[in-house]
Amino acid sequence: MSSVPFELAWLIPLLPLGAALLIALFGRWLAERGGWLAVAAGGLSLSLAVPIAWNGLQLREPFTSSFGWFAIGQLQLRLGIYLDQLTALLLIVVSLVSFLVLIYSIAYMHREGPRLRRYYAEMSLFLGSMLGLVLADNYLMLYLFWELVGLCSYLLIGFWYERPAAAAAAIKAFLVTRLGDLFFLVGLLLFLIDFKTLSFAELFSLQVSPQRPWLLGLGTLFFFAGAMGKSAQFPLHLWLPDAMEGPTTVSALIHAATMVNAGVYLVARTMPLLIRAPVDLLVIALLGGFTALFAATLATVNTDMKRVLAYSTISQLGYMFLGLGAGGFAQALTTQEGAGYAAGLLHLLNHAFFKALLFLGAGAVMHAMSDSTDLRRMGALWPKLKLTGTAMLIGALANAGIPPMSGFWSKDEILAAAFSGGHPALLTAWLLGFATVFLTSFYMFRLWFLAFAGRPRWPEGARPHEAPPLMAWPLVILSLFALSSGFLSSAGLRRYISLGEPHLMPARELLAQTFANPWTILSSGLALAGLAIAYLLYHRGLDLARYRTALGGSVYRLLLERYYLDRAAITLARRVTVGFARLLDRFDQAVVDGLINGIGRASVGLGQRLRRTVTGSINDYASWILAGVALFLLIYVIWR
Amino acid sequence: MTTFPLAAYLGLSAVLFVLGAYGLLISRNGIKILMCIEILLNSANLNLVAFAAYHRDALGYVMAMFSIGLAVAEAAVGLSILIALFRLKRRIDVDWLRSLKG
Amino acid sequence: MLSWLLLVPLVGSLIVWAVRDERTMRLVALAFAFGPFALATALAFLLDPGRAGYQFLEQQTWIPAIGISYKVGLDGISLPMVWLTTLLTFLVFLYSRDSRTRSYFALFLLLEFALLGVFVALDLFLFYVFWELVLVPMYLLIHGWGGPRRAYAAIKFFVYTFSASVIMLVGIMALYFGAGAHSFDLERIAAGAPQTSQLFQVLVFAALFLGFVVKMPQVPFHTWLPDAHVEAPTGGSALLAGVLLKMGSYGLIRVALPLLPEGARFFGPIMLVMGILSILYGALVCLAQQDLKRLVAYSSISHMGVVLLGIALLSQAGLASAIFMMFAHGLISPLLFMATGAIQHGAGTREIAQLGGLALRAPQAGFILTAGALASLGLPGMAQFPAEFGVFLAAYLGVGLWVLVPILTIVLTAGYYLWALERSIFGKLSPIAEQAQDVRAYEFWPMIALVALIILFGLWPGPWLGAINAAVLNNVLPGLGLGGTP
């Protein structure tokens, strides 16, 4: 595999980007409106990414290659690629999951007809931008692709733009993430001005300028604000559940492979700087833990299959931030390895697989149920959809963190890292994350039982049927990953992904140690308890209404209304801001323009008065002339 | 030959000027207005000639001649305008000429 | 070379007037619009960005008695404006195909002549003559081919900007006498003017600034712009937003800053506040607009605020980025105006509330409008991003974290554009959109050309920015007494 030179990494994002351009221009005449071209470009990227990433994992020093882009004043900005273990990991995740999603799309989206050109062009652009994002060698280039990723999510969420809900969800996604992006932009400016560079290689080897020590902390905190937007952390999480208005394949891509991972990647990428600002790391961990719990509570009441998965994504992303924060903090204050960092990133890997699996499974269910996502209208799908059901079950087990599925390994490491982090804030975050374990398992199996077990509550005329092979194969492949990636990555990949010197142990020891830990056993027990309660409530006939009363009406309502945050945000945007804008517009018309028109009117009015002096009579004019001459003579005589 | 002082000429000129100006302001008859303008011009001519004689400078005479020539042209144009107006309205007063009123 | 650049549209204007046959006239007009564009493109390649001073200089005494000469030249600051003018005229000619008469094209060529003159003139008298000459064809274009309230809009445009530029003329006269050169030659004034007293500089700067800022226009001198845009024909709007507004900021950079450094320093904070105010105010007012074209007009005010902010910082980064912003906005706002024009043409209205779902019936119109809106909200990869980034960078250097105010306004910018898109081209199909026709081919391709250029300059701003940077360093900063700072 050493035969693939690293310079070819340039091609990894360029292939899908080029495909996007070609599809946009010539998609009308291509097979499946460019779908197969998109798959081919994705496949080529994948086949380049795997050997390059494999070699990249072994690198001692990051590989970089860059050239000048443009200059502002005396500051030179560059474009380039930066390849290290982190990039390698993300390259594999992004290109593999996206490739599978693209293949799945061929079958899933086929009905869309001529619009497929737009779909595949935007999907390729999305993939290319995400690959560019993880390969970027400086923050400005990262920001460039960061925004393109945001753009693609806007376009794809609004794919069915004729639906008002989709159009509204798209704008919400763009605006909420952009709010975070702008803080990221400010962070960029801070860094660029004070360190004169945005290149990773140069920044990471830099010493903090002593006269402004607060700057590093502030700048990286701004970066985290950007990450919060992209990775949907509280309070910028509002866009993600609504993003379900897009096609399911888009949701899979956003949630598993691209968009939401960008934020986690940014924080992981910035880690060498963040460990010089430990307070930021505590903020990140605490917010991550809080978001994990917060989103999990919301997932327990939602009746829309895709939205449950969306809240689950937010919650899992919270875990990742918790891991990164805890790991970085440990690294910053102690000499031991911050294990949470690796755990957070491995969780990203595992989550990408099982969440893609869940979404594609949900797509298969929708395919079977004529596009309905309403859990209240499903039930008893198991006999009809054995393959999809199995895949979803594997995904649910992995997401719930039940051993030995993939989610278990990394989540457990994250919690362990937070527990041993040695700071009250981290302990609080750990507690939040620990409570989330139960909720996660509960809502995942609630979803599964509501969809596949119980009695059929299908709408009239529903004929559930299994998905076609092009949709089934990605499910099978992802199921295998969701089953195996946890242990394999913790035992194998772990050695490459680490902050500082990794604390390694052989696989056997890892197994022994993991299952000897009482907290691990407790958390697994909690997960199983969640499963059991979901089973009792949703399989053994205890129906929704009972659960509702059991939870208490007001709490249930609060959760159903998403803590009223969405409403508050919409009120703020539409009522307050637009209201103020209307007022200002009226002010503009009446006062600012009124003043100008007033001057005009006053001039005309003055003219109207003066016109009375113009009588047209020759004698009057002559008298005026004479009077004038006399006046000037008088003035001359007096002043002489 | 008795010579009058310069002031006498100037005084006469001033009297002529005032007469002309007064006539100009009060008269409505176009012919009268033209005549008054002639008086005004001639008061100026008298001034010119008087100063020319006083300073013994021929330029004054030249200017006076020039002015007389202009006055002739002006009278011709003015009278022809008046005749044209008379043909139009059968009136020679200028009160009705008010199309310039603002 | 530059005289040819001026002569071609002027002669073209006369010839177009003379040609009787409609078809031939169009071809002739296109040819005369293409000529300057080709010439300007050649100039862009011929210009040596590294050299200080002006290039392609031509000088001819004109009225020697009072020190007026015909003097033209080009540098990295005027080149983007010149190129933009010729490009937009050409594209507008391609775009305006139906129901346009000879005088329409002739007036446009005259307008092009005057605009090019403003950007190449190196003699203040010449500059002023061209400056005022611009008003005449623009006034006639609005008045002759405008919307229902065109008379009001045209006279407002004329009187408002004319009054301001008369005050500017006073400033120019003061420079003529005050700088001790008794010449209108920019370079000769530049030798003497910076040494004059601070009071003189502040007063003269105030006079010039008023003329320039009304043209840009900035809050609170902006109200002529929305009216003029709403009533102007699409081609007129494209040139008005694309080039006419830039005359103001160009004048500031070319005349006011290097000649009156003390005045500039005195007015720096005022320009700063005015720029930031315009950014915020324009964006907020945009949110309330019902008419797509009016929205784009107010967004121009907001974006020109970014330009003024960049200028106000009086640094190399700020000035260079402001000039690039002028260029980027000169590509983007004409695109948006052409898109709204095409929508009006196809759907019969520009009212946001009456459109809705338009993209279903007119996908090309939807694509163009979306592309323009995305470019205008500063998406990286499109021309406005490097410019805004540079201005904010300079602003952070100049005013610290106050830069958050203009930066956070970007959310508002994204908000009003996307909200307008959501209501006009997305969502349920409205009865009016149902009947709408898509963009015509002759409208589509000029707009696509602009989209391509916007992306090209967004991905590859390097060469232009390099030339601008060098010109700012060589031709503006020395007058200000500044060296190259980031």
Structure write-up:
The complex is a heterotrimer of chains A (640), B (102) and C (486). Chain A is mainly α and 640 residues long. Chain A is 72% helix and 3% strand. A two-stranded antiparallel ribbon of chain A has the order 1-2. With 102 residues, chain B is mostly helical. The mean pLDDT of chain B is 88. In chain C, a hairpin with a 4-residue loop joins β1 and β2. Chain C starts with a helix and ends in a 6-residue tail after the last helix. The radius of gyration of chain C is 21 Å and the shape is globular. Chain C is built from 20 helices and 2 strands. By secondary structure, chain C is mostly helical. Chains A and C meet through β1, α5, α6 and α24 of A and α6, α11, α13, α16 and α17 of C.
Main features:
A: 640 residues, mainly alpha, two-stranded antiparallel sheet, 72% helix, B: 102 residues, 3 helices, 77% helix
How would you concisely characterize the structure shown here?
The complex is a heterotrimer of chains A (640), B (102) and C (486). With 102 residues, chain B is mainly alpha-helical.
In terms of quaternary structure, the protein is heterotrimer
Quick one: overall form of chain A? globular
Mean pLDDT reading of chain B: 88
How would you spell out the order of helices and strands of chain A? HHEEHHHHHHHHHHHHHHHHHHHHHHH
SSE diagram, text form:
The complex is a heterotrimer of chains A (640), B (102) and C (486).
Chain A: H1 11-26, H2 35-57, E1 63-72, E2 75-83, H3 85-108, H4 116-135, H5 139-157, H6 164-195, H7 200-204, H8 213-230, H9 239-242, H10 248-257, H11 259-269, H12 271-274, H13 278-299, H14 305-333, H15 339-368, H16 386-400, H17 406-419, H18 424-452, H19 469-491, H20 507-516, H21 518-538, H22 544-551, H23 553-560, H24 565-610, H25 618-639
Antiparallel strand pairs in A: 1-2
Helix pairs in contact in A: 1-2, 1-4, 2-3, 2-4, 3-4, 3-10, 3-15, 3-19, 4-5, 5-6, 6-8, 8-11, 8-13, 10-15, 11-14, 13-14, 13-18, 14-15, 14-17, 14-18, 15-16, 15-17, 15-19, 16-18, 16-19, 17-18, 17-19, 18-21, 22-23
Chain B: H1 6-26, H2 30-55, H3 58-89
Helix pairs in contact in B: 1-2, 2-3
Chain C: H1 2-18, H2 22-46, E1 55-63, E2 68-74, H3 78-95, H4 102-120, H5 124-145, H6 150-178, H7 186-192, H8 198-215, H9 224-231, H10 234-259, H11 261-287, H12 292-312, H13 316-347, H14 358-361, H15 363-376, H16 384-399, H17 404-424, H18 431-435, H19 441-459, H20 462-480
Antiparallel strand pairs in C: 1-2
Helix pairs in contact in C: 1-2, 1-4, 2-3, 2-4, 3-4, 3-10, 3-13, 3-19, 4-5, 4-10, 5-6, 5-10, 6-8, 6-9, 8-10, 8-11, 9-12, 10-12, 10-13, 10-20, 11-12, 11-17, 12-13, 12-16, 13-15, 13-16, 13-19, 13-20, 15-17, 15-19
